[in-house]
Amino acid sequence: MPRALITGITGQDGMYLAELLSGKGYEVFGLVRGQNNPRAQLVAEAVPSSRLLSGDLRDLPSLVGALDIARPDEVYNLGAISFVGMSWRQAELTSEITGLGVLRILEALRIHTQGDMSKVRFYQASSSEMFGKVREVPQNESTPFHPRSPYGIAKAFGHYITVNYRESYGAYACSGILFNHESPRRGQEFVTRKVTRGAARIALGLQDTLFLGNIDAYRDWGYAGDYVEAMWLMLQQDEPGDYVIATGETHTVRDLLDIAFHRVGIEAWERHVRQEPRLFRPAEVDLLVGDSSRAREELGWKPRGNFRDLIEMMVDADLADLARHPHDPASAGRTSDWEDPRWAR
Ligand code: GDR
C-alpha cells in the first residue's frame, strides 16, 4: 500500500487529494496545525481512513517527526497562507509559511531520507501568482516571473528552492504551477465562492448587496478536482519536472457575475454589486491564462468541464447549503476583517 503525507490537508485541495489518493489505495497521512484544529473534523468525515499528524510548517522538528511516523512514498506540500489579499497584511507570516515553509519541509525530508532524496517523491504547490505582471500570453513553464504580492513572492521562493533541491541533492521534486482552481469547497474569501455564495444569498433574500474589488481582472479558472489529479500524475513520471496546470481559457470577474447571477434568475447584477476601493489590491495581477501543453502531452492530463459548468455547480451547491443551514454563521455574509477600510491606509 503506497503512503502519502499531505500538508494543508484541511484546505480545498488537500481534501480532494486525500479523497483521490485514498480511492487509489494509498494510506493517507495529513499534517494538521494547532491544537484542536476545527477543520480536522471535515477531513475525518471526508476521508475516514486518513490519519492526522500534528505539525507546523514553521517547526522543523515537527516535520521530521511527521515524516518519521508517516514514512511516505510521496509528500504533497499544499500547506500555505493562500489568500493573496491577506498577504499584504501579514507579509512576514506569509513569507514564513508559504515561502520558508517549503525549505523546512524539504530539509525535513533530507534529514528523514538521510540524504537520499530520490527515495521520496515531493510535490510543491506553486502558483500562477508567480507570473504576476504580464510578460507574455499565455504563460507556460518558461515565462519569467514578476510576482505582485507578498504571497506571489513567497511562492516564487518555494518554487526555486524546490528546483534547487532537485538540482543540489537529486530530490525527486516537482513543482505544479497551478492556475486558479475552484469548487464548492472553496473558502468564501476567494472571489468565485464569494460571488456564488453572494448570488445565492441575494436570491434567497438573505442579503442585498455584494461588495467587490476589481471586477475587470482576468483569471484562468478550473475545477479543483481535476487539478489534484495533475498533482498525482506529476509524481508518477520517471523524471521529476515542473508543469503548468490551467484550462487555457480566461474570464473576467464580470463574466463570473453574469453566470452566477443568471443561475439564480437575476439578470441585472449591477443593482446588487458595489465596487469598493478598500477591496482593490495594492498591486493587481491583471491577466492570467495558462498554456498547459506540457502537462497535456507528458502527463496525459486535461481539464474536464468548462467555466460555466463550474460556476453553476458552485451556485447550486450554495443554494442547497443555504436551504439546509440558512443561519449558519459561516454564511452570514459578514465583512471579514481583512476588508476593514483601516487597512487601506
Ligand atoms: P487569486 O484569487 O488572488 O487569483 O489567487 P482570488 O479569488 O482571491 O482573486 C481573483 C481576482 O478577483 C479579484 N477580486 C476579488 N477577490 C477577492 N478575493 N475578493 C473580492 O472581493 C474581489 N473583488 C475582485 C481579485 O482582485 C483578483 O484579481 C488564487 C488563490 O487560490 C491563490 O492561493 C492561488 O495561488 C491562485 O489563485 C492561483
From TrEMBL:
Name of the top EC class for this enzyme: lyase
Catalytic activity: GDP-alpha-D-mannose = GDP-4-dehydro-alpha-D-rhamnose + H2O
Residue ranges of the region described as Disordered: 326-345
One matching Pfam family: GDP_Man_Dehyd
Domain of life: Bacteria
Domain NAD(P)-binding: 5-314
Compositionally biased intervals (Basic and acidic residues): 336-345
Annotated GO biological process: 'de novo' GDP-L-fucose biosynthetic process
Record EC number: 4.2.1.47
MF-aspect GO terms: GDP-mannose 4,6-dehydratase activity; NADP+ binding
Alphabetically ordered keywords of this record: Lyase, NADP
InterPro entries for this protein: GDP_Man_deHydtase, NAD(P)-bd_dom, NAD(P)-bd_dom_sf
Cofactor: NADP(+)
HAMAP family according to UniProt: GDP_Man_dehydratase (MF_00955)
Family: Belongs to the NAD(P)-dependent epimerase/dehydratase family. GDP-mannose 4,6-dehydratase subfamily.
Function of the protein: Catalyzes the conversion of GDP-D-mannose to GDP-4-dehydro-6-deoxy-D-mannose.
Full protein name: GDP-mannose 4,6-dehydratase
Organism: Actinomadura rudentiformis
